[in-house]
Specification:
This protein has 281 residues and is of the alpha/beta class. It has ten helices and eleven strands. α8 packs antiparallel against α9, α8 packs parallel to α10 and α9 runs antiparallel to α10.
Length: 281
Amino acid sequence: MKTCSMVVLYEPDNKEIENILDYYDSVDKAYILDNSVESRETIVNDVLSKRSGHVKEKVEYIHFHKNIGLCKALNYGMKLAANEGFEWALIMDADSTFNTNVVNVYKDYIRENDCSKIGVLAPVHLHDRNLESKFEGQRDVSWAMTSGCFYNTAVFWKFHGFKEELFVDGLDLDYCYKINGGGDRVVELADARINHLPGETRSLSFAGIEIKYGVASPWRYYMQARAIVWLMLEYHSIKELARYGMKWGKVLFLFKEKKEYIKQLVHGTKDGINLWKDVHD
């Protein structure tokens, strides 16, 4: 089985580049896709050269010279992977790290199971707001965050990859809606675990209970609202309607800097509607 990894960098710090070492030895090739303005190729090569057994041909560094978006960069990498005959591709966020060797867990699962109808093998994402209950073995899920997932390249292109208009947010949800609707599966494996950082965590105390919630920039709330509205309209999803309501609830009841967030949520809502209309007109 031929496997590869890919990560999209955007103005990364050295730690994010060093995180590539977590999975470098577990795959046959590493695609490093850089949306930064300035090239980081020299730094990447310096970091990887410190790894025993480093082979330059195992790495393909692609510099886009600007931020073309997460979706477009990953589609580019996945096309390269498919053309080179890789059957499975590990996609990692630059700031994610392994808690267990997820690639080996995935490989063992693939060897022991028929995965022809599995589009995504997913890890458990460990972070300080994770409220998921523990489980053993495997379970089918409706969606999985992109980072740490093993993507079946044949299934990926059957469903035309990530929707590039989403740019950065909602790509995982949109993709999982597509493959679930087409009869393929997203399978989460309990023994595959990654450390994930989904935004800044804040907390407040209410009736003696600590409530933790995530915070991102107003621009990210614009992108999230835009994506959620697209998903809500495209897939007639009650879940996305609830997610949209929760975004507004956080801003109105938890955030101090409400004005700019409200502005961006409204802007994102309008653009999400327009995106859906553009596709269906």
